[in-house]
């Protein structure tokens, strides 16, 4: 297969690209290499990907419509996987304009490029944040997502809505997959695991929001990648919902479009998560307990039934295994820096 991936030098994009290359596919990666976090980490990921002759990279911004359209037209991919976005709930409080330009304008440009260059399947990264103020758990794909509590969530919800309209109008088979707190080696420095490990190793205090009462449905990166790869073959067909006991398909009634959670449905409390990090590091963290930040939610918890019905797969790598893998990578990476 020929697979076009936006955000290929990012955390998830890097792991997904490596997996696809290992599986024998040809990949073109499109990435703006933005300075949201240390570009050296992105360059290190990209250097690994470039070892494969089946990979080529295009460095440009999603907002550059001509560059994006040209890259897709020249490659003529079978599948497009759209991962690139301005991420982070807290960053959206201070830099809202970047979310409008990258997530809304960028995704619009991608949809236009795919409309002009049809593909077998378009997959778009969404997030558990779209469930926002929804108090009913576990989150099901058919639950309402009308009450986002951060601009980040609002833009990702908008991306889902835009992609649905294009899927309806132009019959583009589209899957929006919703991530739940992804973690693992090569992770982003702004995410909790990286921040906690880095601070503890430096002997600095960690900031624990929500007074440690939050829960997250942590998803290890290899599980997420497996889910995406399997979903890429589960192409939505209008009028053909999946039939499985206890599962309600999110397949649109007017388009070959669906949303799917990728998570194991096993939420973990923040304090047990920190205890796991301490155990792996062999050190106790100094903790600064803080109230909930604006835009955050108390808990995330996925219903994984639709993913299993579509792919036969449910993420299952436990937090202890995943955190240890991250700590081992972190120490190697820092030693090599």
Index terms:
seven-stranded parallel beta sheet; 337 residues; Rossmann fold; globular; alpha/beta; 13 strands
Overview of the structural elements:
β1, α1 and β2 form a beta-alpha-beta unit. Strands 3-2-1-4-5-6-11 form a 7-stranded parallel sheet, with helices on both faces. With 337 residues, the chain is an alpha/beta fold. The chain contains 11 helices and 13 strands. Helix content is 41%, strand content 16%.
Question: Could you give the distance between the termini?
Answer: 35 Å
- The tally of strands reads 13
Which homologous superfamily in CATH is the superfamily of the largest domain?
Answer: NAD(P)-binding Rossmann-like Domain
Output the structural class.
Answer: alpha/beta
Query: What proportion of the residues form beta strands (DSSP E)?
Result: 15-25%
Query: Helical residue percent?
Result: 40-55%
Number of H- or I-type helical stretches: 11
The CATH architecture designation of the largest domain is 3-Layer(aba) Sandwich
List segments where confidence is low: pLDDT < 50 over at least 5 consecutive residues: none
* CATH class group of the largest domain: Alpha Beta
Mean pLDDT across the residues is: 96
Q: Please state how the strands of the largest beta sheet are arranged side by side.
A: 3-2-1-4-5-6-11
Sequence-ordered SSE layout with sheet pairings:
Layout: E1 2-6, H1 11-22, E2 26-31, H2 39-49, E3 55-59, H3 65-75, E4 79-82, H4 91-94, H5 96-116, E5 121-127, H6 151-170, E6 174-179, E7 182-183, H7 192-202, E8 206-208, E9 215-216, E10 219-220, H8 221-232, E11 257-262, E12 268-269, H9 270-281, E13 287-289, H10 305-311, H11 319-336
Parallel strand pairs: 1-2, 1-4, 2-3, 4-5, 5-6, 6-11, 7-10, 8-13
Antiparallel strand pairs: 9-12
Helix pairs in contact: 1-2, 1-8, 3-5, 5-6, 7-9, 7-11, 9-11
């Amino acid at each position: 297969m020929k697979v076009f991936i936006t955000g290929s030098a990012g955390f998830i994009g890097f792991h997904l690209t490596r997996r696809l290359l290992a599986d024998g596919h040809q990949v073109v990666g499109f990435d703006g290499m933005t300075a949201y976090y240390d570009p050296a980490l992105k360059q290190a990921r990209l250097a690994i990907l470039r070892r494969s002759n089946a990979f080529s990279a295009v460095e440009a911004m999603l907002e550059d419509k001509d560059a994006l359209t040209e890259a897709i037209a020249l490659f003529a991919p079978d599948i497009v996987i759209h991962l690139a976005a301005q991420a982070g709930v807290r960053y959206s409080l201070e830099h809202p304009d970047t979310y409008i330009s990258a997530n809304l304008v960028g995704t619009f440009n991608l949809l236009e490029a795919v409309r002009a260059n049809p593909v077998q399947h378009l997959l778009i990264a969404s997030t558990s944040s779209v469930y926002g103020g929804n108090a009913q758990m576990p989150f099901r794909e058919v639950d309402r997502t009308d009450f986002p509590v951060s601009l980040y969530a609002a833009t990702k919800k908008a991306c889902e809505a835009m992609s649905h309209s294009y899927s309806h109008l132009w019959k583009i088979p589209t899957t929006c997959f919703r991530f739940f707190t992804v973690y693992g080696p090569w992770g982003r420095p702004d995410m909790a695991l990286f921040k906690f490990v880095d601070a503890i190793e430096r002997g600095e205090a960690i900031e624990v929001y929500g007074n440690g009462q939050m829960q997250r449905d942590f998803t290890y990166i290899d599980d997420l990648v497996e889910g995406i790869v399997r979903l890429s073959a589960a192409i939505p067909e209008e009028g053909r919902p999946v039939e499985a006991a206890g599962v309600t398909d999110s397949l649109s009634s007017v388009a070959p479009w669906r949303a799917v959670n990728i998570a194991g449905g096993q939420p973990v409390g923040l304090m047990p998560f920190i205890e796991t990090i301490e155990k792996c590091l062999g050190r106790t963290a100094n903790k600064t307990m803080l109230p909930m930040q604006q835009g955050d939610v108390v808990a995330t918890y996925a219903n994984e039934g639709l993913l299993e019905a579509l792919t036969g797969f449910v993420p299952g790598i436990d937090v202890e295994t995943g955190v240890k893998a991250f700590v081992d990578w972190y120490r190697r990476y820092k030693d090599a820096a």
